[in-house]
Structures are given as structure tokens and as C-alpha cells.
Amino acid sequence: MEQPNEETIAAMQEAEDIAIGKVKSKGYDDVDEMIGDILKEEKK
Fold first, then answer.
1. What pLDDT score does 39 carry?
2. Least crowded by CB within 10 Å, which of 22, 30, 34, 44?
């Protein structure tokens, strides 16, 4: 069985941290709002 690389392990840990509330993240109900936030971040 293949083992995940370090980047994958870190992403999996981040996802778990978000799921248990250890890391705050923003959720979206509106795709347009999400895209708007992404575009704002890219301009920074």
C-alpha cells in the first residue's frame, strides 16, 4: 500500500483540524460570494 507524501499528510491534518474546529474557516452557501473572496485574496 502506498504511503501519502508529506504535503498530503499536512493537507489531511489541516482538514481534520478544520472539521473539529481547531482551525477556523469560512463556509459558503453562495458560489459567487466564494469566488469574490478568492479573487480579493489573489489581488493582495
1. 95
2. 44
